[in-house]
Structures are given as structure tokens and as C-alpha cells.
Amino acid sequence: MIEEVIALRAEVERLKAREQIRQQITRYGRGQEWLDGSLMDEVFYPDAHVDFGFFVGAWKDYKPMLMEIEASGETTFHLCAAPQIEFESDRRAYVEVYGIAGGRGFSGHTNVFGGRYFDVWERREDVWKIARRVYKLDWHMDHQFSEGAAVMHPELAPAKPRSPEHPLFRRMGIDATG
């Protein structure tokens, strides 16, 4: 009976860890959408190593570049889906996530990127964050809309400005398992 209780507790902890990682993956996209660098810091350790091809280095050095890239478009979109999570231990996990990202620039030019994130997640002080990320682009599409066609449905106005100060922005806590 004691072994069964111990095994159940271990399984509950593994499920909690898996859910926290999933919530962090979602938080990654939200941080970019709302141009919220502090939200992004909840996903990456400051010393996390990132490799996006055009930038290789520490998260803390990449973040300002990322926020500038994201702010340069009129709208952006980030969808992270189908995470495959494999635990090495109760402190380290390997995660592969499909990502679709894109946006429309102020000139009506739209880009969409499809790729995968290959991550190493670590649990430090009971919080799971990315310690290492490598992004690989699988495909890319771009499209230039004709004049006036860039906004297909103006009645469906996007949230502007995209920032944590927008009234639709909701701050969500980091503890997804509580």
C-alpha cells in the first residue's frame, strides 16, 4: 500500500510538471503577442541559451531584439501546439513543440512561419522554465495584400496597442498547478 501511495504521488507530480510546462508554452506566445517582456522572462531563465539561426546566445541578450522584431509589425500571431514532453528526471525535460507564427507589417505585407522548437526545460526552485531552445524553420509563406485588402473585416478590430497596458490584457500567474 505504501509503494502504491508513493507511486501515485510521483505520478501526480509528473502531471503537475507537464501542465506547468504546457502553460509556460502558452505564456511564450502571449508574451510576444502583448509585447510583454516580463511575461517572456517567466518562460526563460536569464541564462538560457537560445539559437534561432540569426541569433545564438543568451536569452537576456535576445529578448530586446525579439521585442523590437515583434513591435515592428501591425499584428502578430504565435501558436505553439502539440508539445511532446519527455522527462529525464524530476528536474529536466526535453520538449519539442510545433510553432506557427506570423504577422502583418504596417504596409500590408504578411509573413507566416512554420517550424519547431527543440527545448531543454529545467525545474529550479519548483518552477519549470526553458534552459535551452533551438528553433528550426520548416516552411515560410509571404503575401502582399492589394491596397485596401489587408484588413478583411475591419469590424473585427485587433487589440491595439499591443501592450500590457491594453484593457483586454489579463495578467495570469506563473503557478499553473496551484
Task: Write up what this structure looks like.
The two termini are 27 Å apart. With 178 residues, the chain is an alpha+beta fold. The chain contains 3 helices and 6 strands, in the order ααββαββββ. The longest helix is centred in the N-terminal third of the chain and has 32 residues, at 2-33. Strand 3 (73-87) and strand 4 (92-105) form a beta hairpin. It has a single domain, classed as Roll (Nuclear Transport Factor 2, Chain: A). It has a 6-stranded mixed sheet with strand order 2-1-6-5-4-3, covered by helices on one side.
Task: Lay out the secondary structure.
Layout: H1 2-33, H2 37-41, E1 44-51, E2 56-58, H3 59-71, E3 73-87, E4 92-105, E5 109-124, E6 127-144
Parallel strand pairs: 1-6
Antiparallel strand pairs: 1-2, 3-4, 4-5, 5-6
